[in-house]
Amino acid sequence: MLSDVTTPQDLDDRFRETLAALPAADGRRDPAGPVTDGAPLTGAQLLSLFDAQVTSRQLDLAGRWLRSFGEGFYTIGSAGHEGNAAVAAALRPTDPALLHYRSGAFYCVRAVQVGADTAPGSGADPGSTAPGSAAAARPASPESSEEPATSAGPELLEADSESAGTRPDGAFAAYAEAARDVLRGMVASSEEPIAGGRHKVFGRADLAIVPTTSTIASHLPRAVGMGLAVERLRRLDSSGRRTGPGVRASGAAHVPWPPDAIVVCSFGDASVNHASATAAFNTAGWYDHAGLRIPVLFVCEDNGLGISVRSPQGWVEATLRSKPGIRYFAADGADPVQTYEVAAEAAAWVRRHRRPAVLHLSTVRLMGHAGADAESAYRSSGELAADLDRDPVAATARLLVEAGVATGEELLARYDETGWQVRRLAEEVLGEPKLASAAEVVSALAPRRPVRVARTVADAAARASGPGAGARTDAFGGKPPELAGPLTLAQSINAALADGLLDHPQMAIFGEDVAAKGGVYGVTKGLRDRFGAARVFDTLLDETSVLGLGLGAGLAGMLPVPEIQYLAYLHNAEDQLRGEAATMQFFSRGVFRNPMVLRVAGLAYQEGFGGHFHNDNSVAVLRDVPGLVIAVPARPDDAAPMLRTCLASAAVDGSVCVFLEPIALYHARDLYAEGDGEWLAGYPEPGAWVSGHVPIGRARVYRVGSADDLTIITFGNGVRMSLRAAATLAEEGVGTRVVDLRWLAPLPVADIIRESSATGRVLVVDETRRSGGVGEGVIAALVDAGYVGAARRVAGVDSFVPLGPAARHVLVSAEAITDGARTLLAR
Ligand SMILES: Cc1ncc(C[n+]2csc(CCOP(=O)(O)OP(=O)(O)O)c2C)c(N)n1
Question: What are the strands of the beta sheet with 536-538, ordered from one edge?
Answer without folding.
Answer: 536-538, 507-511, 559-564, 596-602, 656-662, 629-631, 743-745
